[in-house]
Amino acid sequence: MGDVIYGVFDNSMWELHVHVRINGEEGYVRHVKCRDEQFPQLISRKVNDFDKEGKNYRVYLDGELVHQTNYRS
């Protein structure tokens, strides 16, 4: 299924959430919070990292799937 980039807009700030697994439980936690104008660069960096590694990923913004990759394994 691949990794997930999950962005949430909250009170004029974007939050980038990351998937974690702790003690057998999994969920999303806030990783970075930034102003609206900085968010495109933050997303670009994460996307570029995954693209360089050839990793499949999905990008969700406010709960909506906006992009996904389908690299062959």
Description:
- There is one protein chain.
- The protein has 73 residues and is α+β, with helices and mostly antiparallel strands.
- Helices cover 21% and strands 53% of the residues.
- It is built from one helix and five strands.
- A five-stranded mixed beta sheet has the order 3-2-1-4-5, with helices on one face.
- A hairpin with a 2-residue loop joins β4 (57-61) and β5 (64-68).
The Cα radius of gyration reads 13 Å
Report the β-strand fraction as a percent range. Answer: over 45%
Structure class: alpha+beta
Helix content: 10-25%
Oligomer state of the chains in this structure: single chain
Shape: globular
Quote the average pLDDT. 83
Number of strands: 5
Could you spell the SSE succession in H and E letters?
A: EEEHEE
Largest sheet: 5 strands, mixed
Low-confidence stretches: none
Our measurement of the CA-to-CA distance between the termini, rounded to an integer number of angstroms, reads 11 Å
* Helix count, DSSP H or I runs of 4 or more residues: 1
Biggest sheet: strand arrangement: 3-2-1-4-5
Observed structural traits:
single chain; 73 residues; alpha+beta; 1 helix; 5 strands; 21% helix
Short summary:
With 73 residues, the protein is α+β, with helices and mostly antiparallel strands. It contains 1 helix and 5 strands. Strand 1 (3-10) and strand 2 (13-22) form a beta hairpin.
Q: What's the topology here?
A:
Elements: E1 3-10, E2 13-22, E3 25-35, H1 39-53, E4 57-61, E5 64-68
Parallel strand pairs: 1-4
Antiparallel strand pairs: 1-2, 2-3, 4-5
